Structure prediction request, 176 residues.
Amino acid sequence: MSVFGNRKEKLLLKAYDEFSDAIFRHAYYRTFDRHKARDIMQEAFTRTWQSLQENKKIENIRAFLYTVTNHLIIDDVRKKRPTAFSDMRNEDEENNFDPASTAHIELFMNTEAKHLLEASLQALDEHHRQIIIMRFVDDMTPQEIAHVTGERENTVSVRLHRAIRKMREITDHSLD
Prediction:
C-alpha cells in the first residue's frame, strides 16, 4: 500500500470513529427505519472511501459524509413505500433499540416524549425534518448546515425558524 493509500485509510477510519454514530442517528431520524439507517450509514462511508480512492477533493469530511448521506436518503425516499408509525414503533421495541440513547438528547429519556417527538418528526415534510434533525439531533450550527446543504446561512436560519414553528404546531395539535 502506498503512503497516500495509508493516509486515506487512516482518514476514513478516524472519520468513522468520530461520525458513524451521528450519521446513523441522522439517517434513522430521516427514515425511521433502523436497518435502512444502518445501510445508509455504511453506504455513505463506502462512497466516501470511493471518492478518496478517486482522489476527489474533500475539504471537510464531516460535511461530505452528511452530503452523501442526504443524497442516499433522497434516493431512498424516491423508492420508499409508506411505513405506518405503529410498525416502526413495534420494530424498535422488539429490538430494544433506543435511537436517542445518547446523553445529549435528554428529552427522549421519557418513552412517551420519544414517541411524540418521533410522530411529530414523521409528520413534518422532508424539507423541515432535515433541518430539525441536522440542528437538534446532529447538533450542527446553521453555518455547518449551510455548508452541507449548499445554502446561505441566512436561508438555513429562516428554514430552521419555520421548521421549529411547524414542529410546535404539530406537537400542540398532537397534545390536544
Observations:
- The chain is about 75% helix and 0% strand.
- The mean pLDDT is 80.
- The radius of gyration is 17 Å.
